[in-house]
Amino acid sequence: MNLFRVIVLKEFQQLARDRTSLRLMIMMPMVQMMVLGYALTTEVKHTPVAVVDHDGGPVGRSLIQAISNNALFTYKGNVNSEGELRERLDRGEVKLGLIIPGDFSRQLELATRLTPGASGAAALGAGSKGSGAQIQLWVDGQDANSAGVARGYLSAVLNQWATRNLSTRLEAAGIRMDQLIPIVTDASVLFNPLLKSTWYMIPGIAVILVTMVTALLTGFSIVREKESGTLEQLMVTPLKPIHVVVGKAVPFFFIGVAELMIALGIAQIWFRVPFRGNYLTLIAFTGIYMLSSLGIGIFTSTVARTQQQALFIIWFFLLFFMLLSGFFLPVENMPHWVQIVTLGNPVRWFMHVLREMFLKGSGFPELWREALAMLAIGFTVFTFSVLKFNRKAG
Model confidence over 262-304: pLDDT tens digits? Predict the structure, then answer.
């Protein structure tokens, strides 16, 4: 135990002497957290829109005004024809194009014609035989996700405008909208009432940063000993290989916890993301998770001979871990066989845990399955890495 303590102290002293690396360990994740917290968002804003208005009447102008006054869109003005609209879409000047037909006002009039003397749903005429006013929408679909979100936003704006238009006509006839709509939905959004994507993304960013720091630093630390030739000197001492490995991993465990606490502080203070969980429970989950991230660093050190090789190997694993963690896309949207593969991804489980603790305040009673999964993966990865290191050392 004394020899193990010596290794741990030696690592802490080496870190303290390397002031540049210590500053990078602290400052770089903070900068990444600040930048990525703003950059990585699923919100689609300021989408450029152009309109072909063949109607030219007050109804068409009212619809255009509803779009131009919305902060989600940047109105790029009217164009004269579909051909000109297509050219602007081809050049990337606009992402959405709206085509209002020449008989739009008449179609809308027929679709919302009121029957004199009637009330409720009977007040609406059937002059259009159930068909509404037609509007054509062209969407630049190169970025499928952003295009889908922007199209949904614009459709919602058009529906709101149509509802207001109909409501105005009905009120003039002395009819209330609730007479026509038999069901009224009273929706309540829990945990993230403002639907801020940053509240969902920032806990995921914290997981990625902690994983990168602990895996990279552990792998680099051991490989650096190889390059300098001091690892062989450690192996001829009374120290066992497991003492060397664990002794080098312990300081980076504390660094990982410190990085997570810093990320937690930035999330709460700067981005105003609420943390509703328990801090001690979070540290316990972090310890379980770091069996995997530290194990990856140890495994890399047994394969790589230089720090450049270690960097490429760890990045190879991290790329898969990030893409298959649900960070960018929900795991439920992936093919079934990929979902099975993600069960062995520790990042997926810890990311779910952190998001649940941030927004729901969940603890061990709700997250014990995730804890068992991370423990099983971490124990397997760490044990395999240590055994492989022992064979290499032997």
Answer: 999 999 999 999 999 999 999 999 999 999 999 999 889 888 8
Cβ-based neighbour number of residue 99 at 10 Å: 19
87 and 144 fall within a common domain? yes
Specify burial of residue 78 (Cβ count, 10 A radius: 0-12, 13-18, 19+): middle
> What total number of domains does the chain contain?
2
Helix ranges (H only) for 112-236 are 144-172, 197-228, 230-235
Q: Within this chain, do residues 203 and 348 fall inside the same structural domain, yes or no?
A: yes
314 with 218: CB under 8 angstroms? no
Helix, strand, coil abundance in the chain, percent, nearest 5:
65, 5, 25
Distance between CA atoms of residues 252 and 301, nearest Å:
15
Distance CA 54, CA 135 (A): 11
53-to-27, 50, 105, 106 alpha-carbon distances in Å: 53, 10, 11, 14
The CATH number assigned to the domain holding 53 equals 3.40.1710.10
**What is the extent of the structural domain holding 314?**
2-41+194-393
DSSP string, 109-120: HHHTPBPTT--G
Q: Which residue has the tokens 């009673």?
A: 365
| Beta-strand pair 136-139/96-100 | antiparallel
64-74 pLDDT, tens digit per residue, is 999 999 988 99
- Coil, helix or strand at residue 218: helix
pTM score: 0.80
For residue 46, give both structure tokens: 């300021």
382 within 8 A of 292, measured Cβ to Cβ = yes
Q: What length does the chain have?
A: 394
Kindly state whether residues 208 and 170 are assigned to the same domain.
Answer: no
Neighbours of 82 (CB within 10 A): 14
Six-digit token string for 91: 């050049």
